UniProtKB/TrEMBL annotation:
Residues in Activator of Hsp90 ATPase homologue 1/2-like C-terminal domain copies: 15-137
Name this protein carries in UniProt: SRPBCC family protein
Alphabetized SUPFAM superfamilies for the sequence: Bet v1-like
Gene3D superfamilies given in the database record: 3.30.530.20
């Protein structure tokens, strides 16, 4: 199987780094923003935010038609700066939190899976990131 090119998504958030970090990492917040569209939600999220720590979130369609677990292990955690993790299927993800003129820019780079089209994966991850931005900026 050939390795697919990594995908990068990003957004700029008008908020301070402590707020962005806590909203990104705390399960009670993750459950509020972790979906790509309004017909999905995250009923469960757990996060042991440290190197070697595990995380998981359950994403489900609101109509009950489908759902999946998103799980992995942290490879690196630098508060307010960077998170690197490995998903349970072996794919790597790198998230950078960089101070910008008006807030924080989040850049996520991830290895795509091979079941779904790359464009669909990019759109899905970008939609979740956009939802995170809306959630943070509305609170």
């Amino acid at each position: 199987m050939s390795k697919l090119t990594a995908i990068t998504v990003k957004t700029a958030i008008n908020a301070n780094s402590d707020k962005v970090w806590s909203f990104w990492t705390e399960p009670e917040h993750i459950k509020q923003w972790n979906n790509a569209s309004p017909d999905w939600y995250t009923p469960k999220a757990e996060n042991d935010l440290k190197k070697g720590g595990k995380f998981s979130s359950r994403m489900e369609a609101k109509d009950g038609s489908m759902g999946f677990d998103f799980e992995g292990t942290y490879d690196e955690v630098i508060p307010n700066k960077r998170i690197k993790y490995t998903l349970d299927d072996g794919r790597k993800v790198n998230i950078a939190f960089v101070k910008a003129n008006k807030g924080i820019t989040i850049t996520e780079t991830f290895e795509p899976e091979s079941q779904n089209p790359v464009d669909m994966q990019r759109q899905g991850w970008q939609a979740i990131l956009d939802n995170f931005k809306k959630y943070v900026e509305s609170r």
